[in-house]
Amino acid sequence: MEHTPLHRLIQRFARSGLQIPPATMGQWIKSGIDLLLLLYQLYEKLIFGASYLQMDETTFIKLLYQIEENAKNLQLSADQRLELRLKESKPIFDALGEWLQTNYNLVTPASPIGKAIAYALHRWENMKVFLTDGRVEIDNNLVENAIRPAAIGRKNYLFAGSHESAQRTAMIYTFFSACRQYQIDPEIRLNDVLNWIQDCKITELGLLLPKFWKPKEEGIG
């Protein structure tokens, strides 16, 4: 993923003597990604149906991170990690909550600190989930690392051109990030899936998701 906007690709081709109208390039991209729409919708359904999701949201304090680091070093199971959290993290977390509530009443709501405390308090119940399930990570670093490459793309192209184009870009980033997670070459997988997705039975569509995908000669068909 080189995060190169279409106009730069067109310029590269032009320097090699290949003139491609922007509308033609855009239509090629649209036609290819539209073939993946059903697969994307299936993937979206599976993701949002999961019992545990990470999203780009909030952070915690140093003492809590130290406890998490200890749990990691001890290679604790999810149940053991939850037990450690209830013993060591919960008192810290509760004390932080009390501090936020007390100090929110002492600051100006419109001030930077007032806004920061309000932000934390508004999300406090959701932030407590890590104290109920040992599988849940204390932060969202996994997903932040996964979406970090998208920031490169945002610097390269400030506008998608339309809502539909932005949606297609999101689809590509989603599939490419999943390929990275499962150590799959995204170009090889994309070429393979585009070549035979139209012949794939709807009941076998899930086999084209990155987690289950295999090159055609190894997979279905």
Describe this structure in words.
This protein has 221 residues and is an all-alpha fold. It has 2 domains: 6-52 and 142-208, no CATH class; 77-138. 61% of the residues lie in helices and 0% in strands. Helix 5 crosses helix 6 (112-122). The two termini are 29 Å apart.
Lay out the secondary structure.
Elements (H helix, E strand, L loop, with lengths): L5 H10 L6 H13 L2 H12 L13 H12 L4 H27 L7 H11 L1 H4 L13 H16 L6 H19 L4 H11 L25
Helix pairs in contact: 4-5, 5-6
**Shape estimate:** elongated
Helix/sheet category: mainly alpha
Q: How confident is the prediction overall: mean pLDDT?
A: 81
Measured by DSSP, the beta-strand proportion falls in: under 5%
Count of helical segments?
10
Helix content percent band: 55-70%
Number of strands: 0
Helix-strand sequence? HHHHHHHHHH
Q: What is Rg?
A: 23 Å
Number of domains: 2
Distance between the termini: 29 Å
**Would you identify the regions where 5 or more consecutive residues have pLDDT less than 50?**
55-59
Give the assembly state of these chains. Answer: single chain
Main sheet? none
